[in-house]
Amino acid sequence: MIPGAHILAGFRLGFQYRRELRRLLDSTPTNTGILEIDPESLRSSGAAALALDFDGVLASHGSPVPLPEAVIWMKRCEALFGGKRIFILSNKPTEGRRRWFAEQFPDIRFISGVRKKPYPDGLKKAGELAGVPLSAIMMVDDRLLTGCLAALVAGARPCYIRRPYISFRHRPVAELFFWKLRFMERLFVRLISTF
User: Fold this and answer.
1) Residues in the chain with pLDDT < 50?
2) How many CA atoms lie within 13 A of 84 on its CB side?
3) Rounded to whole angstroms, how far apart are CA atoms 118 and 143?
4) CATH code (residue 144)
5) Which of 96, 117, 171, 174 is deepest in the core (most CB within 10 A)?
6) Number of folded domains that form the chain
7) Which strand ranges, in their side-by-side order, compose the sheet holding 86-88?
8) pTM for the complete prediction?
9) Are 189 and 157 in contact (CB under 8 A)?
């Protein structure tokens, strides 16, 4: 695999799915974080499994463990979906995070050994492991051109987090980079959706 191929794929596939990305962007309130997403509503909408990004969704960028409020939210999800139908699909699955989940949520699995998002490989693997069709998987991500796009490509359901967890105090350079990246993604989607 060529280094950075997933970035180029994000632009190429982003253009292909530009209208779907624009609808997702326009229909998601700006204050949407995971705490505004009711797990019961996800379940009643037909989702049978969850794929969760880590950075921005469960904690600020580079954090080794989820925030306490994210842990409470995941426990609610685990009670509804079962841990074996919840997956961590991050482009940065660290060993420290794996160990934490193995201790705190032993049934929740990391998806690894696949091409990075926006490629649909991770969601396909999650569908196989959970035994559910891709259309029943909800991908929760704070990036339009990675996780949300991967969901569209795979035929899964994207759930866009517009208010990600950010900590400029702990990692100012990384957080500023990803804050700008999210802004540029939204701008890109707005611009290309007019074509």
Assistant:
1) none
2) 5
3) 10
4) 3.40.50.1000
5) 117
6) 1
7) 109-110, 86-88, 49-52, 137-141, 157-160
8) 0.95
9) no
